Amino acid sequence: MHRGKSTVEHRDVLRALFSSIACAPSICVALWLSLYLALWACSQPTPTDPKSPELSGVVFGQAQIERVSEMGFPGPLSPDETNHVCDDLRAANLGHILFFDKRLSVHGDISCATCHQPDRGFTDGLALNVGISRGVRNTLTILDAAHQTWFNWDGRFDSLWSQAHGPISHPREMGASFDQVVNAIRGDAKICSQYEAIFGQFPATPLTPFHVEQAVSNLGKALAAYERRLMTGPSAFDRWVDRWRDLRMTRELDRVPAGDFSASAQRGLDLFTSRALCWKCHAGPLLSDGEFHALGAAPRNDLISDPGRFGAVDKLLASPFRTGGPHSDSPRVERAQIVESLVAQPDQWGAFRTPSLRNLGLTAPYFHQGQFATLEEVLRFYSTLDGAVTMDHHRELVLKRRDFSEQELLDLEAFLRSLDGAPPPSQWTRDPALSPPQQLPPVAVPTEKPHD
Ligand code: HEC
Ligand code: HEC
After folding, report:
1. Which terminus, N or C, of the chain has the lesser number of Cβ atoms within 10 Å?
2. Tell me, what DSSP letter sits at residue 255?
3. Is there an atom of ligand 1 within 6 Å of 163 CB?
4. For the segment 220-233, what is each residue's pLDDT rounded down to a tens digit?
């Protein structure tokens, strides 16, 4: 009996065991399937959940792919044919010294670095610059400036080297006469020999006005050679663009390893290149079309109306320092021809150059009169257009109230902040009076144009 009972029990257990074994494959499959599905779901982006902290949920349209593909790290600087020493290390070393030299100002107390301070992203942190007296515009950064085509907020100069004479003689900036500056250089045996090694001997005294202008152009060319070294390295955004390109510019941003380009910045990029219409003017590697637009941000009450680009065209055409002028090393370059055909148009009144959006983290305040202290203020302006005025003749029609939500404002700011690049090599950002100059390379430098 015992045996029988135990046989029955055994049989029941065996049957249960058997039936469970029989079902096992389906149970196992079901279990594995649900486990797999759960894991898959965790590892997949959830494009519908924009609030997820790590995932942006952004899916690009075709036009955005094209816009973003043009926005990555700028390529190498193209040579400036109008400045034959633009990439000469000796000229960069001389320019480095001049940039920090206060003898370029009338009272010997202001250098380029007074307003373009290396530790403030080569700006001064002020709304309006202060030299001999307070100026009427916000100090632009020198970082990456060599990539521009037009210089200053109104594009009043058409080369980096010709820009330099502007602040030297400006009565509110450095206020020096060209004669004074050239005499100071000639009177300093060390700098004079550096200058003559690059540009040839100074002509016999007394120098004619033409020769003084020529020497000032040469100082500008050395300063430009220095400024061309002030390039920033890749930003978080640039590194992300590289990874995105590696994935064949996928539409789904969450497939790209985010690194330090946060989900919020990705959503900001999405807005920037679509509905917010920022891309219409802030395009390409510098996020600038390099052209002039009248946004109509309320001007400061204490300043007279600034004509912007409208006022710059005639000054440029009249300048002996323009790229088509007598001191240019290649007066027939295409840029010079474009300049010669410029005519000031009424719709350029109050228009300013679209600034680069790189390194904004270092260059507050913003806009040509420093109207906005923070990026948040800039974005709230674009959102509401509060205080915007129609300039005397015209205002950009592409600008409409966008009414960004609080989250959108944060996302746009996160994107803008991802554009800060690594600083230029420290040997170029130090005051050279405090550190030794660059060593000359062992190879011969290109032959120079003789100084005539
Ligand atoms: C008193 C302050 C001050 C001094 C000194 C000064 N700058 Fe500037 N710099 C400015 C301001 C302000 C602007 C924008 C001017 C404008 O748009 O009218 C500017 C613009 C520039 C730009 C144009 C950048 C761009 O993106 O277009 C360059 C380059 C530059 N300065 C180089 C120099 C050099 C070189 C010197 C010395 C010879 C110098 N600056 C001295 C305040 C100054
Ligand atoms: C119609 C062309 C245009 C559009 C569209 C545009 N901008 Fe601008 N942006 C400019 C110009 C021009 C300035 C300089 C205006 C001035 O100084 O008066 C500027 C200035 C800025 C500045 C300040 C930079 C500095 O160094 O002072 C930021 C930041 C900026 N824009 C971001 C944006 C964002 C974000 C959008 C989209 C919401 C946008 N812009 C849309 C042309 C444009």
Report:
1. N
2. G
3. yes
4. 999 999 999 999 99
